[in-house]
Amino acid sequence: MTEDRRAVHALADTVDVRPAPPRRPATAPLMAAAATVLVAGVIVVVSATPPEPEPTPAAPPAPSPTPVTLPNFALLTHCGVDETKIGTTFYEAETPLIGPARSAPSGWDNPYQPGTMTLGPPDSAVFRDQLGHEVRFHVRPGAKEFKQLCD
Length: 151
Description:
By secondary structure, the chain is α+β, with helices and mostly antiparallel strands. It has helices at about 5-15, 25-50; strands at about 70-75, 80-85, 90-95, 110-120, 125-130, 135-140. The chain contains 2 helices and 6 strands.
């Protein structure tokens, strides 16, 4: 035997290697105490707190109260003032203004009227020009194209 092995055997002969007595898990009393506290707390809470009403669904976030103005807006008037497109959103006029034979209304430029478009919450827009014209628009939900196209 090598000298290392002899040293290990000698050490093993001097160490008490009897198995330790089985330990009782410390978590059992702790769990029992926690369950007692939890049950007591639930009983107190239930008896002291009236039932809560059903939660209502969260409301959608409020639109920004600050209007956005598009200063150099060219409103298409060639087929009348009935609808417009701003970005990818289609709007329709509250009160359409249609000239003879589905053309620009009297007193409006054709094919476009220059002016200002103000987008307001939640889904409206107002066109104004220097001549005093004012047209209110509302989003046309689900629209993917103009209602009617003309030449």
